[in-house]
Design brief:
mainly alpha; 3-stranded antiparallel sheet; 178 residues
Length: 178
Amino acid sequence: MSTAHVLLGLLAGGPRHGYDLKRAHDDRLPQAKPLAYGQVYATLGRLERDGLVAQSGQDQEAGPERTSYQLTDLGRERLAAWLVEVEPPAPHVNSVLFNKVVVALLASGTEQATGYLTAQRAAHMARMRELTAVKTRPGASVGDVVAADYAIGHLDADLRWLQTTLARVAELQKEVNS
């Protein structure tokens, strides 16, 4: 996820200050890692430097003075281009799961790899149950359901891979050690 692009998207609805952007991010992307305030302000600084946002005013409610930002025309163009850009499928296997299995086989053998795969499968199943509870709870927002469905789909793919790899650990051990 590009934090800069998400912030541009949140600013498409009108000027906001950093606190509002952080809150909107965390509300609209409920299953994403929450943004830190420092990350929001650092990203806004880079967006302003690059001419994608501009300061639009200052306000001071019951706290410190807050600077609001708005999209520039260049920011709107950049956001529009990003929204239609197709994300290429990952060209390389870059997964901690895969890396740990191979390293476990190299360092400790099939017993270590099998134990890891079994423990990881249990962790994935537990997370799937949590996400299913999120999406089926009364009052769940459509955003919560869509985010949970996305995460469940990825967990399901990982679970299929974990199960297949468990069945192939002995074969993989031979390849890794040759």
